[in-house]
Amino acid sequence: MAGEVVGWLQILVAGEDVHGCHGSHIEICGNEQFYLGRDAELCRYTWCDDLTISRLHLRIHCILYEQDPISDISPFLYATDLSANGTYLKKSNVEYAASQDDGVLMGRKNTFLLDAGDELHISENITLIYISRSPVKTIKLTPTQEVERQMFSARYLVTSRMLGAGGYGKVLVGVHQQTQRQLACKIVRLDEIAAKASRLPTADRKKHVSSSRERCFREFDILKDLSHPNIISVEKVFCSRDNIYIFQELITGGDLFSFLEFKGGRLNCMQTAAIVYQVLKGIEYLHRKNVVHRDLKPDNILMSSLEAGARVVITDFGNARFIPDKTSQPNKYQRMFSYVGTLEYAAPEIHRANPTIPVERGYSKSVDMWSIGALTATVLSGDHLFTDRTHPDYDRNAQRVIVSLAAVCNLSVLDDHHHPLWKSVGPQPKDFIRKLLVLREEDRMTASNALAHPWFTCYAKDVEEVYKRSIADWKPHQKNHRLVEDINKLSLHSVTNGASAVRENTNSYLHGMQDSQGTASSLGRGKLIHSPANQLSHNSAAPADTYNNRPDSREGFVESAESFNVVSNHHSQQECLDHRPPFMGIRLENDLVQVSETPTEEYEYPKLDNKDGCVVDQMYHPEHRKDKRPQQKTLKRKNVSVLVPETPPKLSPKYARLKR
Q: Which residues are listed for ATP binding in this entry (predicted)?
């Protein structure tokens, strides 16, 4: 649903502003989509007399994440060229090659994120200039990052436009210089790991730094071998001692949660089926590749556009794991024990709360299928199945309430014909949910079983046709043997060029640090929340009667690098220059970073014990963990909760009620 005005497109005719004339500006509202062209019925603004303009020339859509007091950042405005004759984009940012001369040809069906001052030349006489109601805040990189980005800037540009932020870094707009395609560039700060580990006892620091740094590399280590239209793709990675720069495809439609807001809070059965079908396609592919996602939720499902039948993309592989196949590696570990995921979507066995699975058994890849069931229920109803806000203990210990309800798995609400949220949902999607939200993991549908459910097979031909159209523009990921490069081995000429940038930026950067000291942030669904009271505390112990107050319930509270595939609002980060640990976790050789085919942490374990035919590892098995999980503080409806790898799950109270 459209919000208030967030900007305008100023219209220039033959280079002159038509100020004072009717329709000299085109208003842009948050969370809306419209067309420009010659078709008076379909377009918000038309130029009927200019035959060089197509009937549908441009699609404009605006993504505005949750109108809350913190959201003082300009919205994300995207323009898609649909024209036959083409549209030229001239960027206001002088770093872009697209800022030169007349700009660059956008290309049919290509989408670009606009900055204030960008010019869209839709014909020889008509130019549109984007004017943002609120200025876009520019992001200052650290002096080291300024040097490093200059070393590969001839191939990939890192701009100052913020897309997201998290515990160890930021997500900025990147650009592939040769094609001028926009990408998402995640900058993961490895030097932050040592800084955050400094609060640990001295004896534990080295172990936690090593494991946290390894987790920083795990996401692209998994993604590098994947190529599927419903899985986010990674294009290029640059590594140094202090930073990792990960360039990924930029998905321009926002995440599923924003899409629900755009659609009024919930979707009907057919709309939901089209999205869930694509999620299942992606998960089926992952499970065939022996990859478990472990954090499926609306935040981590991206939409390529706001159009019906958009491509759906699974993102955020920071919690993902590679599980070797039993037939190929029978002696490797097949089950997991880490506390990951988001409470409302996590299977109860992740929290040792599933009565049908012994605690020492851990969990399997079927946790992804439970998450799809919970996600489907949220999309259909606009609420969570296992979140009872009327429970007397909810305000005091919401985590315990949610986990307890999931462990009981009472789905009787689906049969309540008078329930305001479920009475309009048909029997097939309800049956689909019932066959996924099953406590006995062996009874849950697999991804392949779920794709064969009557909800999809009753309209098999139509569903498949919609799917083919959704992925028609996707191109398979090409295997890149130079995917990862060591920045330290790039040309010395680039180093020299970059050094001057550091000298110019150091003083202003250090001055800006004073404004960002002591800040805390959490990334989720593309939102950043500056509200420590609503995040899990790493300093306070849980009450004695809570489910998470056990010696085995926390696997090291040092936050690892969060995944930043989703778009989020900007929030200043505390910058740290004092901790620069040696480069660890990968081997550098011949200008390439050699990454193992599978994360060694996942399955190369010291043999301590043998239970049920499985090798037990010291890091993951609950009997060998000594630390405790922290306590959830107060909750707030719109707050984001995001789970970082190997830390206890947080709530996502921002989903409290999607239906408004």
A: 196
